[in-house]
Design goal:
With 143 residues, this protein is mostly helical. It contains eight helices and no strands. Helix 1 packs antiparallel against helix 2, helix 1 runs parallel beside helix 4 and helix 6 runs antiparallel to helix 7.
């Protein structure tokens, strides 16, 4: 999960996001989704907008893993829009990268390359080595 999206979270929100992430990594996307959706409340959003972005980012990844590209796109587009509004470059790069991977699975290869190349540019701009490496690998794979 992107550390930029978790800065200064109230403990209960951090724990819900962390638990959702751990459940997803452990192979239980249904329990992960249920846990993460509890963070999608107006009060949580007002207290920590980045928690909401973290939840949407993970929900998008879970939906992608489960093959629900429509939901994945919805969550990542939300993260992209809000990250841009909050000037969170890592969130913008990550969401752009994810949208590129969705475009690839939908068969839109030029769009996928464009999105992932933009994510690579942003990752390099902020010095996010792991993100840049993943984007380069995806671009190489796409040819």
């Amino acid at each position: 999960m992107d550390p930029e999206l978790l800065q200064e979270l109230p403990t209960e929100l951090f724990e819900a996001l962390n638990t959702g992430y751990e459940l997803w990594c452990a192979g239980d996307p249904v329990a992960a989704s249920m846990t993460l959706k509890r963070t999608l409340t107006p009060a949580a959003s007002a207290a920590a907008p980045t928690a909401l972005l973290g939840a949407h980012h993970l929900l998008g990844n879970i939906a992608y893993t489960m093959g629900d590209l429509g939901s994945a796109s919805k969550h990542h587009r939300y993260v992209l829009h809000e990250s841009r509004a909050l000037n969170l470059t890592l969130g913008t790069a990550s969401a752009t990268h994810s949208l590129g991977l969705i475009a690839e699975r939908e068969g839109h290869l030029e769009e996928a390359r464009r999105q992932i190349a933009e994510a690579l540019r942003l990752y390099e701009q902020i010095g996010c080595v792991s993100g840049a490496e993943a984007a380069r690998a995806n671009l190489k794979r796409l040819g």
